[in-house]
Structures are given as C-alpha cells and as structure tokens.
Amino acid sequence: MTFTIWQALLVGLWAAFCFAGQIWGIYTNRALFIAFGVGIILGDLRTAVIFGATAELAFMGFGVGPGGSTPPNPLGPGIVGTIMAISMDKLSPSAALTLSYPFAIIVPFVITFIFTINSSSMETAKKAIMEGKYRKYKWLSNLTLYGFMIFAFIFGFAATESTSALRAFIKIIPQWLMNGLTVAGGLLPAVGFALILSTMVKKEYIPAIILGYVCVAYLQMPVIGLAFVGAVIAFNNYFNGKKSSKDNDSDQGGNDGGIEDGI
C-alpha cells in the first residue's frame, strides 16, 4: 500500500495539531486519538483504532514520568506505528507497537532540544512587552508551540512518505524475531499498568485489584464489564468519602462549639 502526497500532508497537519495539544493541554497527544485521525486519512480506521487502543493501554503507564524524568511520547507510535499497522497486512498491532517504540524515545529528546533553544526567548519577550511591542511579544511567547508544530508536521509527513522504506526494513526481519517482537508488544500494556501501580498503589486499593483479577481470571468478564465494575467502585468511594468527610466535620463542629468565620 502506498500513500499520496496529499495524505502525507494531511498526516503532517494532523500530527502538528495533536502534538500542539501537549502545549494547549487538550489531551490530543494520545496514541488512540492520533491513530484515529491517521486511520481516517489513510482509509483504514478499523486497523488504526485497534493499534491505537493497544498503544494507549501501554502509554497509560508510560505517560507518567516519575520525578523529573521525561516519559516516552505517544506521538512516535501514534504516527509511525499506525502507518506500519495499516500498510503491512501481516503485521500485528503488538509488533507494530514494539517496532515503533524507539520513536517514542526519540521524541522527548526533540522536546528537550526545543525547550533548550527557546529558553532565552523569555527575556526577549519580557523586553518586547516593556517596549509595548505586543505582536513581537506574542510571537516570542509562542516559539515553543511553533517549534512543536513544525517538528510534528515534518515527522508525520516524512513517516508517511517513508512507507516503502519501513516495509523493506520489516521484510528483512526474520519470522522468529517478529514473533518475539509480537510477544514483547503484548507485554507492553502490562508493563505500563505495572508502572502506574508502582507509583499509585496503596493498601486501600488492594481489594479493587483482587476484584479485577477475579472478574477477568475466573468470571471471564470482558473489558467493558470490568470498566463498569471499576465505575461502581469509583462512585462508591466518591460518595461515601464525601459522606464521611461531612460526618467528621459535624463531629468536630459539635465538639468545638461550631465553626465561625473559618476559625
């Protein structure tokens, strides 16, 4: 399967919009969302969504950067992995995720580079606004956003135009190695969730983890059913937590003679 120059341009524009969402804070830079748009542009929405859901499961954990570290970025797999999954018939979504994962490591280096070269622009922007040059100030203040969008456009355009090279690269991979990559890709979502649990797990959540395991392992419950069970637990914790908080406030008010003026 080959793609036209117009499809490459549209993928580039879509990548720029999605990557800019990381600055705007609108969560468009997610693997599933990126893959959804790429699938519409390249004419295979089903394959794109299946791959996007596989990658999204992995990046639920990888998207959390412990401490000051920069986590892998979903732009790489969202663009390159989706193009691989669509353009190569026998490539599974798990293998496409594994093969495209190095791009998730490269993108954070580019982000750091853009932040570094724009680090001195804030002083110039401050000088511009002191002089009343508001247009120059606006342009300087958005340099990082422009850098993100230019990089993402070039990345999406080049990835789409490099489909033949990607296909040739994958064809030289032996089948035994491809099987290993498929297994590794299937494990990535589990690794992602393990990373989440390593930072978020508390003893209060252990019953929910056991309940989820029982639902999947013994009751053969599908993912949608498991999501409803999780929603029930979340609502129960939310409403009972609010009720307990109100009861505690009432008890403290009764013991201390009430709260007036926040004292």
From TrEMBL:
GO cellular component: plasma membrane
GO biological process: phosphoenolpyruvate-dependent sugar phosphotransferase system
Source organism, top-level taxon: Bacteria
Localization, UniProt: Cell membrane
Principal localisation: membrane
Sorted UniProt keywords: Cell membrane, Membrane, Phosphotransferase system, Sugar transport, Transmembrane, Transmembrane helix, Transport
Membrane-protein topology: Multi-pass membrane protein
Location of region: Disordered: 244-263
Name the record gives this protein: PTS sugar transporter subunit IIC
Organism, scientific name: Companilactobacillus zhachilii
